[in-house]
């Protein structure tokens, strides 16, 4: 059994390196996290006020065999006049013969720090499944007894923590993911790089341009052990409180990790984003990512589609719109 899980870890590592996922991040990335903070912070649960459910599908590096595909469903709502939030996140991430599934329950409590400002403290807890389909492997030695036969999987508990501050024009958040669960993987002798701590820092502001146009610059910094620090710089424009258009630039920088390969610091991508309130209840989004590095000569574009629905009708003219 230990040999099987060692093979699982090595196979996942080789698959990641082979297709260029050099950021070393086990958690999947999203371009539309700007519109759904539950992907990166449990303290976001219930922020929108109305009960809200969203599904996102991402196909990354289209054209590569075994390229990552990710599907998520999130739902959240608020209670106690918005001072508490509850959320649910379900994830399925596939990369070649490997698959990661997870489910998390989130809770957030908000402390009013000013007339229109709140500080949310949140936590989520659940479980993650790591699996490999041995039938998809192309082994040099099919008789190797360490090769997994069929589908092999393992489970580990998981917990995330976060803080989220916001008022009507500004927000900032910090969170830590994969807080527990490493011990379960250690006992199975699997590569720990796939359940290390992930840290996120984000902030943004809404700037009125005119009575019908607003501009929202924001950033996200991601830190993972054994990988360069990754950052996103985003600029979104909101037209008539209905249509979002914008772009995002993603890159890496080395901070205290001089032992990393030099080319790991040269991974750049640009994303173009569109999101529209089709009705007062329905929210549709699309993101197109294009790499600007060693993969740029290949069919490496990524596509991301999201559909969100407010269970209770969203009022476009609400006094304090939740644009974050």
TrEMBL record:
InterPro entries recorded: PorP/SprF_Bacteroidetes (IPR019861)
Pfam families in the cross-refs: PorP_SprF
Domain of life: Bacteria
NCBIfam families assigned to the protein according to its UniProt record, in alphabetical order: T9SS_PorP_fam
Protein name: Bacteroidetes-specific putative membrane protein
Organism for this UniProt entry: Belliella baltica (strain DSM 15883 / CIP 108006 / LMG 21964 / BA134)
